Amino acid sequence: MAVMEIAVEIGTGYTSIYVPGNGIVLREPTIIAFIGDPKNKRIHAVGIQAEKMLGKTPDRTTIVEPVTEGVISDAEACGMLLKEFIGKILPDNYIFYPKIRAILGVPTGLTPAERTVYEDVCALAGIDEVTMVENILLSGIGLDIPIDVAGGGVVVNIGAGITEIAAMSLAGVVSGCGVTIGGKMMDKAIMDYVAGKYDLKVGITTARKLKNEIGSLYENDTSEMSVSGRNVRTKNTGSAYVTAADICGVVKPYYMRIADATESIINMCPPEIVGEINRKGIHVVGGGSKILGIEKLFSERLGVNVYTVEEPSYCAILGAGKLLGDKQLLKSILVQK
After folding, report:
1. Taking CA 176 as the corner, what is the angle to CA 173 and CA 180, rounded to the nearest 5 degrees?
2. Rounded to whole angstroms, how far apart are CA atoms 252 and 276?
3. CA atoms within 13 A on the CB side of 300
4. What is the value of pTM for the model shown?
5. Can you name the residues that pair with 158 across neighbouring β-strands?
6. In 131-233, where does DSSP find H-type helix?
7. Which residues lie below 8 Å from residue 266, measured CB to CB, with a gap of 6+?
8. Three-state SS for 61?
9. Which of 74, 77, 191, 194 has the fewest CB neighbours in a 10 Å radius?
10. How many other CB atoms sit within 10 Å of the CB of residue 120?
């Protein structure tokens, strides 16, 4: 039987799959659409196609986002979604379904019961062997941080549903946590703000566009953007100019909470590790790290250098891909579990 190795990241916002020799072969929204009643439902669309249906579905179509705040909340839907994604990336020359071995990125601090859910999802998706590694470690590997040395570094991963923070040393997490703050929470807060200030109800897609295009942590940013929606009072269509200062006022408190949590993680580290952190700085990744001004805000709050990267959303899956080809590092990580 043919054997296929893959790396998988199932995030609140996106699911990614990496294949050695081909790189990231799939990155699509973690969304699945079903049609029919709950007992006789069938898959109608997944990923990109399912996301396009958000807010536009008839009664018999149900949209499911099976990962909530970084953790799988609907195992059956997630397993079916992952199986569809794996089917998309199988080479045409496979006559029979191959035996699949996977490295799977998972949130930090999963309980035994939660780990079982991830195992069940992989089994539903047709994965035969799965090795689970914390996403935050994978992000460090993706950044080329030597996580297997003493005082490897600190990584903050701001995702769609959760922010993970960890100080790493000797291929393990010295101090780490997950904070239930992510991009989707900020999107909903922006929707509420626009409705409250401008009497304009906008969709989640518009809120995300505002965050991505004029989002800033600089209070004096003068950017603005015109958006359309439904007037809350008249119920007619309407529009408004939303400013970068508006978005800053909404999202900055969330980023300050992330900075506070990062400080707590650093304070829990041994003095020798803290010395390494002061020397090496902190790396911030994930989609939430793209916002303007994050390096300045965090460095002023934490008193250390803060670094971002050009493609922060891919760090974890690229790290998982590198780990597929580094059995010694994988062994070192598994020894720490």
Report:
1. 140
2. 28
3. 9
4. 0.93
5. 163
6. 135-142, 183-198, 204-214
7. 154, 167, 175, 274, 277, 302
8. strand
9. 74
10. 15
Long-range contacts of 202-210 (CB under 8 A, 24+ apart): 202/227, 202/228, 202/229, 203/54, 203/55, 203/229, 204/54, 204/55, 205/54, 205/55, 208/183, 210/242, 210/247
Torsional class of 47: left (φ above 0), alpha (ψ -120 to 50), beta (otherwise) = left
219-276 pLDDT, tens digit per residue, is 999 999 999 999 999 989 999 999 999 999 999 999 999 999 999 999 999 999 999 9
Q: What is the mean pLDDT of residues 115-130?
A: 96
* Token code pair at residue 166: 């960890």
Neighbours of 127 (CB within 10 A): 22
Average pLDDT over residues 139-154: 92
Condensed to tens digits (0 to 9), the pLDDT of residues 36-65 reads 887 788 999 999 999 998 878 888 889 999
Handedness of CA 27, 307, 296, 222 (dihedral sign): negative
CB neighbours of residue 256 within 10 Å:
14
Q: How far apart are CA 272 and CA 246, in angstroms?
A: 41
Q: Are strands 153-158 and 23-29 parallel, antiparallel or unpaired?
A: unpaired
Rounded to whole angstroms, how far apart are CA atoms 200 and 144? Answer: 45
Residues in the chain: 337
Q: Which tokens is 115 given?
A: 């780990």
**Coil, helix or strand for 97?**
coil
Residue ranges with strand state E in the chain? 3-10, 14-19, 23-29, 32-35, 42-46, 61-64, 67-68, 71-72, 99-106, 129-134, 153-158, 163-169, 172-179, 200-201, 224-231, 237-243, 282-285, 306-307
Beta strands 153-158; 282-285: pairing state: parallel
